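Suppose a classmate hands you a notebook page containing two proteins, each written out with its sequence and a corresponding row of structure tokens. How would you begin to make sense of it? This section walks through that situation. The first entry is reproduced here exactly as it would appear on such a page.
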Amino acid sequence: MQKRNIITYAIVLVLLILVIWQWSSKNGYSQQMGALKNYNAQLGMLSSIGPLNSAHLHTDVKVYINGKPIDFSQRKYQLTTNYMHFEEGIGDVIHIHAKGLTVGHMLNSLGINFNGQCLILEGKEYCDDGSKTIKFYVNGRESDEMYSYVMHDLDKILVSYGPEDEAELQKQLGSITNLAPKYSGK
């Protein structure tokens, strides 16, 4: 009888351990997978860039969708990667901590994708269609290198999607802050 009780208790104990292990691995698994996805996304951005802390640059940035600026001071846009990020609730200056990072890397780190024809933000596509277009400016000059442009210290970057005329584009360019020199100590 005692041997039977010991076997029963051992089986119950093993089952309890298995249940606890299964429960903890499911909860831990989703957290680990989320962290792994984040690291993989960051690694995907890192082809041909310098190691972390190989640069310390600051760039003023504005992104407009249909005439409305994206508010990068929102928590979801802050400290998205160690390599480049907005921080301290300031959504106008991106801090860059590795050489060779592009505007494409910045957009990807913020969850904004670009496929050559469309900006994709939160599952919605904003595509060139003739009346609405994607425009990219560096230091006040239009450029066609949006995704591949390597950002430099004190650059002023504008990405704009919509039907803007020249006057509206000038207004958007004028809205880009001049805070980067403060953070770069210049």
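The notebook's second entry, a different protein, reads as follows.
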Amino acid sequence: MELNSNQIQEILPHRYPFLLVDRITECVPGRSAAGIKCVSANEMQFLGHFPTQHIMPGVLILEALAQTGAVAILTEEENKGKIVLFGGVKSARFKRPVVPGDVLEMKCEIVKRRGPIGIGSAVATVKGEVAVTAELTFAIQS
């Protein structure tokens, strides 16, 4: 399943400037999702991070990965209309900077679930080169 930005907004509660997924390229509800974020110099964070050398903040890359994983969870029939909250980040590794002009390719696979709590294994790449890896914990809010 592919989703454009309008369809993503029907699933996620995030809006500009905090919607960080431009397109979902594949999704298996409840199991995994892949998406892209086209990084632009016009984004708010680049006013201060850093004015003379733009680098996308790592926490925003983690948020983009979490939003990608949230799409996988929220496309499950029983979770439609709910919100997925961050529960934690483990083993985050930042391997390369992400800068304007990059297309951030994100994948999140749900590897464990117990009730409303789960864990996603996430990776973000640029041109096939790993930028960030992390284990993301989430909680589905009823």
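A careful reader of the second entry would note: Residues 103 and 127 are 8 Å apart (CA to CA).
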